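Dear H.,

Thanks for agreeing to be a second pair of eyes. The structure we're designing against is below in token form, covering all 54 positions.
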């Protein structure tokens, strides 16, 4: 799915953080799951980082 939102409509400079959601559609062909590890959990002791280029 493609969003109708634009980078400018998000108001990114007005906020100090961005919240995003990653999920698996319940109707997906292979809804097995998803693992995301962060600092102090998993094989690597570092935080998950999201980088945006716009």
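And this is the sequence the design step returned. I haven't edited it by hand at all.
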């Amino acid at each position: 799915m493609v969003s109708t939102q634009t980078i400018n409509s998000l108001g990114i400079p007005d906020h100090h953080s961005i919240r995003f959601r990653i999920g698996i559609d319940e109707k997906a062909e292979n809804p097995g799951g998803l693992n995301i590890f962060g600092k102090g959990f998993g094989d690597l002791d570092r935080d998950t980082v999201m980088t945006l280029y716009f």
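Two observations from my side: The chain has one domain: 1-54. The CA atoms of residues 24 and 31 lie 6 Å apart.

Warmly,
E.
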